[in-house]
Recover the amino acids of this structure.
């Protein structure tokens, strides 16, 4: 398999993302070692200092709020930085980004959001690999330890966290289909979401995160965003009172 240096894969992803308005916002989400902004390792995420940044952001809007909702929103922001470029690389460039959580670092914005993910290891050309093999590291070396960290440092449950991950994964595949059209590589990635088990028989934590009923895209498990005082619902909210507001047949990252 051909190895691609970090700077080169980031440039390829950015060029691809910037080529269409539907993906342009994802350019710059992955950066290489040449990016000189300060970074933090994964084990600094959602530590006390980082949680204070997130709390302060929402405290400017609300006197009291459920921090399960704010931490879930933070995770959705995080996923919208990490998943789009990695899935674009996999489906459109046939590249697997080296994204293991312990091998990346994070550029943190002033409000606690992830501004960019810095990768430092070579990515690989994976034209012939099946989807479970080529995306295994994303799911089990990045998302799984991230969710371990989230559930240890916040009051979020694993069910909510994996639902957030599956929702964003599915929505990004829909976005790629809208931009680039159907492809075998895309269909293979969608197969992951439809399979209840990973090869070897153990449960697939991304399976069934989203379903479509009468053309309406709905999450299986609520992200808790509606528990903030302004009662805002995400576009795929399963809470019954949210349904009259939304009737989108296709998804997009929240």
């Amino acid at each position: 398999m051909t190895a691609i240096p970090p700077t080169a894969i980031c440039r390829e992803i950015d060029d691809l993302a910037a080529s269409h308005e539907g993906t342009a916002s994802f350019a710059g989400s992955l950066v290489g070692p040449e990016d000189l902004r300060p970074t933090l390792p994964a084990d600094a995420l959602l530590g006390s200092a980082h949680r204070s940044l997130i709390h302060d952001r929402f405290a400017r809007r609300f006197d009291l709020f459920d921090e399960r909702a704010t931490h879930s929103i933070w995770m959705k922001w995080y996923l919208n930085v990490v998943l789009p470029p990695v899935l674009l690389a996999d489906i459109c460039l046939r590249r697997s980004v080296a994204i293991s959580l312990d091998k990346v670092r994070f550029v943190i914005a002033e409000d606690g959001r992830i501004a960019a993910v810095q990768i430092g290891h070579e990515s690989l050309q994976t034209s012939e690999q099946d989807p479970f093999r080529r995306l295994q590291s994303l799911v089990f070396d990045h998302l799984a330890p991230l969710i371990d960290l989230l559930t240890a440092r916040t009051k979020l449950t694993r069910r909510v966290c994996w639902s957030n991950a599956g929702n964003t994964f599915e929505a990004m595949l829909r976005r790629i289909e809208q931009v680039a059209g159907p492809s075998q590589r895309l269909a293979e990635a969608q197969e992951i979401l439809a399979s209840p088990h990973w090869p070897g028989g153990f449960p697939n934590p991304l399976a069934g995160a989203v379903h479509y009923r009468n053309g309406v895209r709905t999450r299986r498990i609520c992200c808790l965003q509606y528990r903030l005082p302004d009662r805002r619902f995400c576009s795929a909210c399963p809470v019954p009172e949210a349904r009259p507001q939304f009737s989108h047949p296709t998804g997009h990252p929240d």
